[in-house]
Design goal:
L-fuculose-1-phosphate Aldolase, globular, single chain
Length: 241
Amino acid sequence: MPTAEEAGLIEDLVIANRVLYDQGVVDGFGHISARHPHNLGHFLLARSMAPGLVTAGDIMEHDRDGEPLDAQGRTPYLERFIHSEIYKARPETMSVVHTHSPAVIPFGVVKTTLRPIYHMSSFLGDGVPIFEIREAAGPDTDMLIRTPALGAAQAKSLGGAAVGLLRGHGNVVVGGSIQEAVFRAVYTEVNARLEVDALRLGGGQVRFLNAGEAKAATDTNRAQISRAWDLWKAKAFAPEQ
């Protein structure tokens, strides 16, 4: 039986999957994990399924190499190595999100850089690296991070950033909690839409947040994450009218 702390984390993971779907960050694909609260080398992640349908019974514990400990016939995500390798490389990371966030995809295939255009996306101020899978696996892959070696290469590309892009694929977002990772995933998508609008309106000339503004706003926002989380949770679980 899971401990109370494990049960709470599983509940938050279920909520996170539903919120990410409701906010349009994931659709039938994408996933979010959380570092195990007691065995910090392990993590919790749903079985391979649409995020918007995840329940507590779908969450499985995975070991440090990304393998489920008690699958019970449940199929794990092919790209679970995104999570396992980031947890190895980033001890401070407590949650990892992988999405195919629609407005973000173009920034992985053009020279225009994804940068923080307003205070809510200030966490982008440390830079948003782009992982080029061809450099790690050659020219003819299916674009998926389906091996530990590819996961390690992607984690190295991410470095210390909060968000990293996967060229022609999607993005990876990390946080110090499930709530922070969800917050960042949602506002990365919002920032991408706003940046495209600003670039169009400004003829390519945009005044982005500077380093000091980005840091100060990130510190402020970190104390306000629960406001967004509570709203998104209520909306995602609201009864259908």
